[in-house]
Write a sequence for this structure.
């Protein structure tokens, strides 16, 4: 069985991020729970995400770890590019191949972003709890998927 997700900050307050790329730079421990609302199945991912500088500006997001689904564990990884947005509190998030994924504005410590994918819609909610903890919750709905992906990030070192 997996460990439960940490609870939100006791005060429920948001942590404003004046410079999102500076804030994310470094290594983060990742714990993700994936729930299939249609079947009731649940899986989880344990690993790390490293945000490292890109030569052209921005950050390369490299996530790697182990994903467990229906009792089977296997290696999993993904790569994203966090490019500078229109202001320091924002970023333009793209897939590894450069296709747009979503915008990100953490100036208030909270952001909601949408990403249409074929007939499905991904809606992500980003919440920064403090300097070393943030969370994403992606709700994926449509004819092909009915999922909730809840991810906790904790800064490592």
């Amino acid at each position: 069985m997996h460990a439960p997700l940490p609870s939100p900050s006791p005060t429920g307050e948001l942590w404003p991020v004046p410079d999102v790329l500076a804030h994310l730079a470094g290594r983060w421990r990742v714990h993700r729970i994936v729930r299939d609302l249609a079947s009731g199945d649940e899986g989880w991912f344990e690993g790390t995400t490293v945000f490292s500088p890109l030569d052209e500006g921005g950050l390369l997001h490299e996530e790697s770890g182990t994903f467990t689904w229906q009792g089977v564990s296997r290696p999993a990884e993904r790569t994203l590019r966090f490019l500078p947005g229109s202001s320091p509190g924002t970023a333009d998030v793209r897939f590894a191949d450069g296709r747009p994924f979503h915008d990100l504005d953490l100036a208030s410590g909270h952001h909601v972003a949408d990403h249409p994918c074929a007939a499905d819609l991904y809606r992500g909610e980003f919440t920064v709890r403090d300097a070393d903890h943030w969370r994403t919750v992606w709700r994926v709905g449509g004819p092909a998927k009915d999922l909730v992906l809840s991810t906790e990030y904790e800064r490592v070192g």
Observations:
- The first strand starts at residue 26 and ends at 36.
